[in-house]
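name: query_chain
kind: protein
chains: 1
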Amino acid sequence: MPCKTFGKCFVSTVRRFVPADENQLQSLVQPLQGPGFSWDDLLFSAELVQAQTWVYEVAGTIQSFVCIRDSGEAWEFTIVATRQDGQRKGSMKALLSSVMGGLEPRRHIWLEVHEQNLAAQALYQGLGFRQTGLRGGYYRDGSAALLYTWSEDKPLPSV
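structure:
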């Protein structure tokens, strides 16, 4: 019987980033470069190492990843990305649900998203995030960044 997410049944893994993953993650984000994702190679490489980076892997291929920073008061998701050919298949929901469930408690989790990225907005809202602000003209195309917050009064998502 085919699996719902990827059409075939494969074991999926959520795990910490290791340096050997960097080339695969660089390849993953290359097609995503644009107004809503414009990390240069040097800053991107640094963020992978300096943040807590988690990956969602299926059959040896990283489908999604998230970089997380601890600000003391809150966790901040600094990079959230899914392979272009793997979008809308549940990998990011599974990754964020798993990671959020394992984070040391904080009052909030913060992230920002391009105002035109409706799929990501729906995902975050489905995980209990709510829009709490807007940074006008934040992206290089002049679009706003929508600020989202998950608060401790929300139940943690389940996979």
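note: The chain has a mean pLDDT of 90.
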